[in-house]
Every structure is written in C-alpha cells, then in structure tokens.
Amino acid sequence: MNRKEKEEYLREYGQLKAEGEPFFPYAVAHDGIIAVVIMAIIIVMSLVLGAELGPKADPTSTTYVPRPEWYFFFLFELLRIIKPPQLVPLATIGVPTIGIILLMLLPFLDRGAERHPLKRPIATTTGILVIFAMGYLTFMGASAGSPNEIEMKAPAALAGPALVEWEKGRIVVGQSGCLACHKIGENGNDGPGPQLTHIASKLPEAAIAQTLRNPTAPMPSFKNLQTESPEKFKAMVSFLGQLN
Amino acid sequence: MPDLKKLLPPIPDALKLQPRRAGTNPEPKGPVEQAAEAGTHAGAWIDERMQLSGAVRWAMVRKVPRHDWTYTLGFSVMFAFLSQAVTGVFLAMAYDPSTTNAYESIRYTTNEAFLGEFLRGMHKWGSTVMVVLVFLHMAQTFFYGAYKYPRELNWVIGVVLLILTMTMSFTGYLLPFDQRSYWATIVGVNINGTGPIVGPYLSDFLRAGPEFGATTLSRFYAIHMLLVPGAIGAMIGAHLWLVTRLGTTSPPWNKPRKQADS
C-alpha cells in the first residue's frame, strides 16, 4: 500500500466507524450470546463424549501404536506419506516451520490495498487450497493406520495359514518399533541398524530368532515378548524369515 | 393493555421516592434517597482512587463499524481459553506431576472425585473447541483481509498465539500419563529432535535430559500450566490493546453510506 492508499483506507474506515454502533452494548451483547453457545457446546461434548483414561503408561511396552490428538493428524499423515528417510525431517519439521514462517510474513508478503476476498484471487485460492489440503490430510490421518505400518505385498508362494502368519508378523514387526532403525523394503529408516529387506537370504529363521532374543546393543531384546506372547514372537520370526 | 401499576401493592408514603422540584435545594436527603445513591457513591469513591473510568469508557464506549457474527470469533477463542484456565485450575487441585502418581491422581479425578470426569471432559473437549475456534478466527481474518494495514502486527501476535495454543495441546497431552499420552509424546519429542540446529536442544529441553525421565513430566506440567498460559495471557492483552486502539475492521463489502466530500 502506498501513502495515498493508506490515507484513503483510513478516511473510509473513519467514516464506517462513525456510522457504526457503540461497542457497548451491541458488540458486547453478541459476544455474550456466543459465550453461552460455546459453554453449552463444551458441556454437551463433555457429557456425551466423556474423558476416557487408557491403561497406565508403560515405557517397556513395545507394541503400542501412538496416535496424536486429532488436530495433529495432518502432520501425522505427512509423516506417513513421506517415506524416504532423508525427506522425513522435511515432513516433520520443514513443512510446519515453513508454514508458520509464511503465516507470520503474510501481511508483509501481501501488501495490496484490496481487501475483498473475491478481488484477491491469489490469496483466496491459496487459502481455500490450504484448508482443503489440511482437511484432506486430517481425514486421511484419521482413517489410516500408524506410521509404523509396513506396506508390503505378501510373497506369492505363501497361502493358507502361512499367509495368515505372515500377515500377523507384518503387523507385529511394524508395531514393535523395528522401523526406527531398520529399513524393510520402502519402509523405515536406513540405519543405525542394518537393512532387513533381504535378511532371510543372509540368516536362517533360527538365527533371526536368536538375534531377536540376544541382540547387539542398542537394539532392545525381544526375550520378554517371547515369554509373554510366544505367538507374536513366532509371527515376527516367520515374517522376517520370508524377507528374501 | 391493563395498567400494571395498579397491580402492584401500595407503597408506604415514607418509602416513595419524591421527585425533586426545580430550584429547591437537593439537601437534605431521606434515607431512601441516600440508599438509592449508594452505588453511585461507591463507584465514584473507587474511581477517584483508581482513575479507571477513562479506560473503561475508552474500551467500551467506542463505535465499531457495522459487522456480522464472524466478528465474535476472537472473543470466542478468549472465552474458550478462560474456560480452559478455570477447569485447569480445578484439575490441578488433584493432580500430582510425578511419574509414579500422575496416572493414579488422574484416575482418582476421573472415577472418584465429584463431577471429576465431567471436569476432565470439559478441559479435554474445551481444547478441541479452542483449536477449532482459533482456526476459524484465523480464516475469517485471512479472507476478510483484516491482516492488512494498519493491523499487520496484530496478525503476527495472532500467529504467536496459534503456536502457543499448539504448545498447550502438545504439553497437556502427556499429563494423564496413560499409554496414549506417553507414546504420542515420545514420538512428538523425537520429531522435534529431527529439526535443524535447534532441534536436538529443544528435545533435550522438553525431556529435561537426553532420555525421557522422572523430571520430564513435571517439566511438561510447568510448561503447560505456568509458562505458556502466562505467555498466552500477555499476548491476548497485547492483541486486545491493538484491537481497541486500531478498531475492528469493517467487512470489506461494506462501504460508507454517504460518500466522502471530494
């Protein structure tokens, strides 16, 4: 805005203000009505939806799938979509940081005098696109599983109970946090642990089970999993044993 | 229409307010007149010592341009924040921010305390309502072009308030200390750690050390109920000061009724 536009705006605003109504009581009355509505919404939500309390936090559990509060779902979904490890920081830190910086700079980037949304096509379109993108990502994040899920096709040779076992192992391995250090196909991080994509061609199943029980630090031991839920451990081993 | 005055019981003469005649000395007054003016006197007494009436007049008796209901969104956010503050104070009364007792204290609030689950529900769902209102308020400001001259700085303060609100919901998520909150926080703090330059330091600051430990919870508690609410209060103060000083915008399609003299 140049000086002329600023003066024009201030003059027009002064007139609009003079033609307006007093803040007290008109605006105050509107705010009061809205306050009652909001209080009612919060009370009804509390009564209908309640406040559940899950099981107590257990730092030793290895199979819990964390989910954030719903308004972080769009970030969660970005993390799920962007798989290559060198791009993960971009999804987790880059996008939100750039978004916030752009938001902060908005009034300095868009300095035009026009305020009507229909006469600011670029700003209005961008705004609507951002809202749709966030809405879409939130929806996908809400309906999708966790970033710990392994997306893979079962080997064609498997059928019947072996396929069921493989499917179960895929879920258990995903939930057990292996992907934090190991890469399995397109999933997970490359390092610090070795790639597991073709682990079965290097180690037989028994050796895989042995490594799970007795790993090299810093990998956690899955001995407890074997004693507490042997079928999960078995599924894990048979899934890893199929990674040729 | 019936005369309602006739339906009222008769008032004894001594209690009737006498209209003052022009030219007569107002003193002395009866006890009823004095009692009727007690409020005015008390107000005047306080104002003489606090000098507030000017500020109240400045904030309240000012004209605002004609507007629609979307202009209540800003107040709505503040109201939701106040609701969070009040319910938060009551939740804090039974909360113990230690890794051993936190879960148990929340379980007590939820299952045993009077109206405990209702209170927790109000705080939990109040945060959702507040976040939704923040986004609506921001969208309205964006589409109405209200961030433009001369209100640029108020938009920046608003973005700071958005970050603070998100910090509130992130730190509050850990406090019930169930599986969900614990693991979501672990993931969230690790994500912070992947950030460039300040990332690892931020993670260490949040965790109070390189690993999630006994003091992490009390640190989140202090951030959630002392640091950030104080900052939000201060920022809301600055936000409102600027709103009052610069005036609320007019919807961009409203034009002055009478044209300016050319």
End-to-end Cα distance of chain B: 53 Å
Strand residue percentage of chain A: under 5%
Structural class of chain A: mainly alpha
* Helical stretch tally of chain B: 10
Please tag this protein with its features.
heterodimer, A: 244 residues, Helix Hairpins, 3 domains, 10 helices, elongated, B: 262 residues, mainly alpha, Cytochrome Bc1 Complex, Chain C, 1% strand
Short overview:
The complex is a heterodimer of chains A (about 240) and B (about 260). Chain A has about 240 residues and is mainly alpha-helical.
Structure report:
The complex is a heterodimer of chains A (244) and B (262). Chain A is built from 10 helices and 3 strands. In chain A, strand 2 and strand 3 (187-188) form a beta hairpin. Chain A has 3 domains: 1-52, no CATH class; 60-147, Helix Hairpins, CATH 1.10.287; 161-240, Cytochrome Bc1 Complex, Chain D, domain 2 (Orthogonal Bundle). Chain A is an all-alpha fold and 244 residues long. A two-stranded antiparallel ribbon of chain A has the order 2-3. With 262 residues, chain B is mostly helical. In chain B, helix 7 (152-174) crosses helix 8 and helix 8 (179-193) runs antiparallel to helix 9 (199-207). Chain B has helices at residues 31-36, 38-50, 53-60, 73-92, 102-111, 116-143, 152-174, 179-193, 199-207, 214-246; one strand at 63-64. Helices cover 63% and strands 1% of the residues of chain B. Chains A and B meet through helix 1, strand 1, helix 2, helix 4 and helix 5 of A and strand 1, helix 4, helix 5, helix 6 and helix 7 of B.
List the topology elements.
The complex is a heterodimer of chains A (244) and B (262).
Chain A: H1 3-19, E1 21-22, H2 23-49, H3 73-81, H4 88-109, H5 121-143, H6 161-175, E2 183-184, E3 187-188, H7 199-202, H8 205-213, H9 223-228, H10 230-240
Antiparallel strand pairs in A: 2-3
Helix pairs in contact in A: 3-4, 3-5, 6-10, 8-10
Chain B: H1 31-36, H2 38-50, H3 53-60, E1 63-64, H4 73-92, H5 102-111, H6 116-143, H7 152-174, H8 179-193, H9 199-207, H10 214-246
Helix pairs in contact in B: 4-6, 5-6, 6-7, 7-8, 7-10, 8-9
